[in-house]
Amino acid sequence: NAGVTQTPKFQVLKTGQSMTLQCAQDMNHNSMYWYRQDPGMGLRLIYYSASEGTTDKGEVPNGYNVSRLNKREFSLRLESAAPSQTSVYFCASSDSRHVTDTQYFGPGTRLTVL
Amino acid sequence: AQSVTQLGSHVSVSEGALVLLRCNYSSSVPPYLFWYVQYPNQGLQLLLKYTSAATLVKGINGFEAEFKKSETSFHLTKPSAHMSDAAEYFCAVTGGANSKLTFGKGITLSVRP
């Protein structure tokens, strides 16, 4: 039981390049989330998927797209990376039958955009 | 609308001393409150959560937090710090249906030998 896994762990991009961050969970959770973590700013929600087949914008969606490929997988795509997207990206999942359900986090992807 | 305030960015205590990490919230609906911990180079994991059952909530690793509605607070405490408690701690709030989790900016706890 691996929980939430993310690939890659580290990535360096040049401005304008594109990439996709992968996330998978094996807990049969309905909801999945993408956050970014920046120093002194906590975690901010980029996009989320309340259930398979649905996605919605969070607090900071500009410059990102997402795909809920199936119940297990939720990917985050940067079409044209910018230095402002240098951050640590976390994927999380929850059962979400209730708002108090715990979110379980992956280990993160450290992205640097030059 | 909801928000969390964690004053200060860093707390340092001696091993064996009391740990107190402050969290104040703002919410237009009855809140649910969480504390998450992040160890270096890892993802976040849940320490404890308040779901309106008991105001004093006990979590893992000897941590506890008390929900005080009159003070809009949910401070995290541990009677005796251990070196392994060194980490970043995040307070988070959510509200009614369709409400998302809002995190505070986090506070780094250092433990001195």
Quick recap of the structure?
Chain A is built from no helices and eleven strands. Chain A has strands at residues 4-7, 10-13, 19-25, 31-37, 43-49, 56-57, 64-68, 74-78, 87-94, 104-105, 109-113.
Structural write-up:
The complex is a heterodimer of chains A (114) and B (113). With 114 residues, chain A is mainly beta. In chain A, 0% of the residues lie in helices and 49% in strands. In chain A, strands 2, 4, 5, 6, 9, 10 and 11 form a seven-stranded mixed beta sheet that branches. In chain A, a hairpin with a 5-residue loop joins strand 7 and strand 8. The radius of gyration of chain A is 13 Å and the shape is globular. Chain A starts with a strand and ends with a strand. Chain B is mainly β and 113 residues long. Chain B has no helices and twelve strands. In chain B, a hairpin with a 5-residue loop joins strand 5 and strand 6. At the A-B interface, strand 5 and strand 10 of A face strand 5 and strand 6 of B.
